[in-house]
From TrEMBL:
Organism expressing this protein natively: Cuerna arida
Cofactor, how bound (note): Probably binds two magnesium or manganese ions per subunit.
Lineage: Eukaryota, Metazoa, Ecdysozoa, Arthropoda, Hexapoda
Protein name: DNA-(apurinic or apyrimidinic site) endonuclease
GO terms (BP aspect): base-excision repair
Biased composition (Polar residues): 11-22
Record keyword Secreted present: no
Amino acid sequence: MLPGDVKEQNESGSANENQHNLSENEDEEQNIKKSSRTSKKGSTLDSWVKKPEQESKGRNKRSRKDDGDVKETEVKKSKSSTPVEESIADTDFNTCEKTTTDGKTWNFKISSWNVAGIRAWLKKGGIHYIYKEQPDILTLQETKCSEKKLPPEVKVPGYHTYWLGSEKEGYAGVALYTKEEPIDIKYGIGDKSFDKEGRLITAEYEKFYLVATYVVNAGQGLKTLDRKIEWNKLFEEHLKSLDAKKPVILTGDMNVAHKEIDLKNPKTNQKSAGFTPQEREFMTQFLNQGFVDTFRHLYPEKEGAYTFWNYIGNCRARNTGWRLDYFIVSERLLPAVCDNVIREKVLGSDHCPITLFLHL
């Protein structure tokens, strides 16, 4: 989710954080009207894991798992179906024609979605997405809800869930759904001023780390750009420290369009949050340290591939968007990647889900 003034939004598709946060229900529904496999053992990842002298094996007590197996539910169109439910019913979630470079088919799926308010997302039927996609791991951003106020509908059979909300109600927040219980869960980046905003969860698995994040926004008029630069330094240190032990899979809303190809109107957004030289340069130098943007690795020349569209100006219908949501992996994990898919047809937020297919 990106800020910008109304003129920029209408002409170039950049987002307005103030307008976006006025009402989860109202602005999301306005836009919508317009418009598994489980983890398998014996992986080739064994050779990529760098064994640290000591690794934490403690399980975090905040995990919850809803009983029962995950069963795919039929989301059928009816007169009572919401536009979100219809978009989910129309999507094929399990076809992946691509393989790894050595010809292996996928057996592990990770998905991510900035839901722009989980309560509004639930009311529109967004929970059906989890049942249809059936990812092994799902991360959510901008849940905008403290754990104690979560509706009961967030429970999905067969998943452990972890929630990190912001101290400020109705702001930020990240969540993790996972079929396999992680070895360890850590909340935050180690800085209280950022951690109180609910921006990052790190899950340790046997053969990789999963980092789910909602990165700091540079803000209306770039008023929080310096704060984002401060975050980026801590963020990079955190990821590099993890990568020294095991491969890392980073996913979430990075709040940056890295290259001109990653947004519809680069020329008119040079000074917009999410496309400043400082933000783009950070992404460049970060990726040069052994990390890979999987989508651009697979589709280096693909245009019009966006994950965010501002509600104002009918941007989604015109595909005036930004690619803000990423899967970034340690370079040594690339041999396990099959495909990175953008679910642009799935409604429910000003962002769409993204999915990474792997052979682990």
